[in-house]
Every structure is written in structure tokens, then in C-alpha cells.
Design brief:
This protein is an alpha+beta fold and about 525 residues long. It has helices at about 1-15, 15-35, 65-75, 80-90, 100-110, 135-190, 200-240, 250-270, 275-310, 315-390, 415-440, 450-455, 470-500, 505-515; strands at about 40-50, 110-120, 120-130, 400-405. The model is unreliable at about 245-250 and about 310-315 (pLDDT under 50).
């Protein structure tokens, strides 16, 4: 009980410090509460509406979370340009002409309240409120806000969809151009190496085999003609006859002999001299030569009478036959040279085919990679066009109005009782805090207990401080003067500020604009 009495005495002693703070703050709160002009607050509610077309069927290219979309809209709404335009267009503030642009922006933002609510498996909502001196002005400002929000939302989504479409259109154009260049390079490379392409390798290999066979056949024909020429000369030198070669057609044995000689030439190109087939062909040829020689000897006597008459003509006939054989041999030599040249060029192209094939495969892989990228880009371009169509027709995610702004029927602010009571409570707290700080800084000993704690000594007794009558009157006079100053001076100072400097409601309004809190 003594402790309570002690602290109460301290409070009473410091009452002159407590009362000015408490009374000034309380009086200012009451004056502000009852001088603030009435304010009207209009509110509207928005919701982020889900896409009207399921994303599984036709997704939009503007994929942005609902909360992030509202935050972007909020930042774009509260831009300096929008605040100035709306304030000047609707003449929102009472002293607009006397305010700087910064003050206008601060006042508009302070009077605007934005609250976003969202949750898991819950719709994302935004509540927008605006405070104005007139009810119609508050509703009109919210109407402008809604117009800006819906326009900004549509512009943002359509702009994003359009930018996405432009990006993929440009990508498809670039990839198409690159694919055309790659295709032209491949075509030019194929034209430059048309004789060594891998797809014609099998044909050229078969053509090589055919040319080799043709070359072998030409060589055999040349050899056969050379042998025939030698036989004609040998036959003429031996018998002096040329009719066998020129006057009459060759017999069946002679034809068979030519066939066997051709087979022997073909076999020698493959087998050696000791091969059984070669030996068999030589045996057959020798037998036919013997038969032909025997038949020629039998006919020799019958033709002796005719030889004398044809002796003068034999050399001319022989020369004609030899000339024909030489002409055929020359033609075959030309064919042999041409075939050999073709075969050499064909072998050179076959040797170049692996190098051409490697380079062509590399170019083809590059073309296929570009073509694959082009296919992916074309698919994305198609989806971008679908997404732009969805956003153009407003079938995607959008912000819708749940509750449009209404004109308030009565003032919403200020809550005068709350402001006055809050000022009084704050005055009590401020005065008590001042008293606490004064006592905390005062380290002097004022009780016997303080002497014991500080010096560890027990006092014999205590003598109270006794003021004289003059000191008591002076102390009471000071307290009364301070009380009169508070009760008279504070209202007078408030009145002077209100009259000669700025109205209190304007000062309070500017303070709330600066702080960003509306009471």
C-alpha cells in the first residue's frame, strides 16, 4: 500500500508535466474530430474471372496468375499521370488549384484504398474504395478507375498476345528463310556433284560392270579381226586363194572355228594357259583347223584351173578384205578409247562418292534440324494465333465487376468519437511516458529505502521537507497559471492557426494525405 502511495505522490508531483501533454493532445484531437469535413466513401468489388474456353481445348498465350494480374493493374492504376488526369477531370479535391502536382498525387493515393484477397481454391477479389468530399465525386472517380482497369487489362492481355504472335511470326519467317537457303545449298551441291551422288552409286556400279564387259568384248573383237586378217594373209601366201574369205560364205566348220576362237579369247581373259577349259578349246580349234585344211586340200585340185584366171584379181580382193578389216579394227579402237574414258570417269566419280555422301549427310542434318525447328515454331505460331483470337474476343481470363460503385447516401467518415477517444488515449500515453522518462532520469534518493539500496546504511529517522507559506502560495500560483495557459492558450493557439494560417480541416487533410491514412 505504501508503494502505491509513493508512486501516486510522484505522479501528483509530476502532474504539471503530465497535464499539458494530455490536455494539448486531447484538445487537438477533439478539435480535429469536430472540424474535419464529412467524407463519402464509395466502393466497388472486382474478381478475376476464369477463361470461358477450357485451356485443354484452346489455351491462351497470356498465362499470368490472378494475384499477379491484380498487382500489375494496381500499380498501373496508381500512376502519377492517371492520378493527375482523374483529379483535374473530375475536380476531386476542394483546393485543387492551390496544390502542386506532387500534393495532388499524394492526396489521390491517400484517398484510394485497394485490398486484394485470394486463397487456395478461392476466387481472387479486389476491393477498391475512394474517399471524396461529395458522394457523386467518389462514385465518379471509381467509375474512372473501373474504366482504366478494364482498359489496362484488355490492353495488357491483347498486347502480350500480339507480341507473342509477332515473335513467332518473325521466328517462322526467319526459319523458313533459313530452310530455303539450306535447301538451295543442297540442290546446288547436288547439281555440282550430280555424277557422284550416293543414290546413283548402285547404277554407276552396274554401269561400271557393263562398261568393263563392253571393253573386254571390244578387245576380243579386235583380237578376232586381227587373227582373221592374219589368217587371210597366211591363206593367200600358202594357197594363193582368197575366195574362201571373199568369194563364198564361210562354211559351218569355219563359223564354228570363229566361235571357238572367241570363246578361247574370253577364257584366256579369266583362266590361265594350263586351265582345262583352255586346253579343251585349243584341242577343238586344232581339230577344226585340220578338217578345214583337209577339205581345202580336196578342193585344191578342182580349183587349180580357175586359179590361173583369177590370179591377177587375187591381190585386189585381198586388199579390199584387209582394208575392211582394218576399218572395223579402227572403229573398234575408237570405241575402246571412248569406253575406257567413260570407265575412267565413272571410276573417278565412284571414288568421290564417299566424300560427297558425308558432306551431303551433314547438309541434310542441318536442313532437317532447321526444318524441325520450323515445325515447332509453326505449331507455336498456330497456338499464338488461337491465343490472340481468344484475347481479342475477350474469352480468356479477365477482370469482371461484381459490385459496381454506388453513390453513398450519407457520410462515411470521419468517426468523430473514435478520433476524440483515440486522441485522449494517446494523450494519456504520451503524458505518462513523459512522467516515466523524467523519473527514470532522476537518480536522487527520495526515500529511506533508496538510502539503504544505494549506500547500504540504515537512517535513524527522516525529516520531511516543509515549505513556507510563501513557497506554497508560489507553487500553487504556478500550477494555476499553467492550468490557465493550457485551458486558454491552447484553444487560442488553435484558433489562431485555424484563422490566420490554414483551416484545421485542411491541415488534417494534408497530414492524412502525407501519412496515407484516412480517419
Amino acid at each position: 500500500m505504501s508503494e502505491v502511495r509513493y508512486y501516486l505522490s510522484i505522479f501528483l508531483r509530476r502532474l504539471p508535466f503530465f497535464l499539458p501533454v494530455f490536455l494539448v493532445i486531447s484538445a487537438a484531437s477533439v478539435i480535429v474530430a469536430y472540424t474535419l469535413p464529412p467524407a463519402y466513401v464509395s466502393e466497388t468489388r472486382l474478381v478475376v474471372q476464369s477463361p470461358q474456353i477450357p485451356e485443354e481445348l484452346a489455351p491462351s498465350t497470356v498465362q499470368i496468375p490472378a494475384l499477379e494480374q491484380l498487382q500489375i493493374i494496381q500499380q498501373r492504376l496508381l500512376t502519377r499521370a492517371n492520378m493527375l488526369d482523374i483529379a483535374r477531370q473530375l475536380d476531386v479535391l476542394p483546393d485543387l488549384d492551390q496544390m502542386s502536382p506532387d500534393q495532388i498525387v499524394e492526396a489521390m493515393r491517400a484517398r484510394t484504398s485497394l485490398n486484394v484477397s485470394s486463397g487456395r481454391n478461392a476466387a481472387t477479389l479486389m476491393t477498391i474504395g475512394f474517399e471524396a468530399p461529395e458522394a457523386r465525386t467518389a462514385a465518379a472517380v471509381l467509375g474512372e478507375y473501373l474504366t482504366l482497369i478494364q482498359r489496362e487489362d484488355a490492353t495488357f492481355r491483347r498486347g502480350s498476345a500480339g507480341e507473342t504472335l509477332d515473335f513467332f511470326e518473325q521466328q517462322v519467317t526467319d526459319l523458313s528463310r533459313e530452310a530455303d537457303l539450306k535447301s538451295a545449298e543442297i540442290l546446288e551441291f547436288k547439281n555440282a556433284n550430280s555424277g557422284a551422288l550416293p543414290e546413283t552409286l548402285d547404277y554407276r556400279l552396274s554401269q561400271q560392270s557393263t562398261l568393263q564387259q563392253r571393253l573386254s568384248q571390244i578387245e576380243r573383237d579386235i583380237s578376232a579381226l586381227t587373227d582373221q586378217r592374219d589368217r587371210l594373209i597366211t591363206l593367200f601366201e600358202t594357197t594363193g586363194r582368197v575366195e574362201a574369205a571373199a568369194g563364198r560364205p564361210p562354211s559351218r566348220e569355219e563359223q564354228r572355228l570363229d566361235e571357238l576362237e572367241q570363246e578361247l579369247d574370253a577364257a584366256l581373259a579369266v583362266y590361265s594357259e594350263s586351265a582345262p577349259r583352255v586346253q579343251l578349246l585349243r584341242t577343238r580349234i586344232a581339230r577344226l583347223e585340220e578338217q578345214i585344211a583337209a577339205r581345202a586340200a580336196a578342193q585344191e585340185t578342182e580349183e587349180e584351173t580357175e586359179e590361173s584366171a583369177a590370179a591377177a584379181a587375187r591381190p585386189a580382193v585381198l586388199e579390199i578384205q584387209l582394208s575392211e578389216i582394218d576399218s572395223r579394227v579402227a572403229i573398234l579402237e575408237e570405241q575402246k578409247a571412248a569406253t575406257a574414258a567413260q570407265l575412267s570417269a565413272l571410276e573417278e566419280s565412284i571414288e568421290r562418292t564417299p566424300t560427297v555422301s558425308i558432306r551431303l549427310e551433314e547438309m541434310t542434318r542441318e536442313y532437317q534440324a532447321v526444318q524441325q525447328q520450323l515445325t515447332i515454331a509453326q505449331d507455336r505460331l498456330s497456338r499464338a494465333r488461337t491465343g490472340q483470337l481468344i484475347e481479342t474476343r475477350s474469352r480468356g481470363q479477365k477482370i469482371s465487376v461484381i459490385e459496381p460503385p454506388a453513390v453513398p447516401s450519407e457520410p462515411t467518415k470521419p468517426n468523430r468519437m473514435l478520433i476524440a477517444a483515440g486522441g485522449g488515449v494517446f494523450g494519456l500515453f504520451a503524458g505518462g511516458l513523459l512522467v516515466f522518462l523524467i523519473e527514470a532520469l532522476n537518480r536522487s534518493a527520495r526515500r529511506p529505502e533508496d538510502l539503504v539500496k544505494r549506500f547500504n546504511i540504515a537512517p535513524i529517522g527522516t525529516i520531511p521537507f516543509i515549505r513556507t507559506r510563501r513557497q506554497v502560495i508560489l507553487q500553487r500560483s504556478v500550477k494555476v497559471a499553467m492550468l490557465l495557459i493550457i485551458l486558454v492558450g491552447v484553444p487560442a493557439a488553435v484558433y489562431a492557426v485555424h484563422t490566420y494560417y490554414l483551416p484545421l480541416d485542411v491541415i488534417a487533410d494534408r497530414a492524412m494525405n502525407k501519412v496515407g491514412i484516412r480517419l
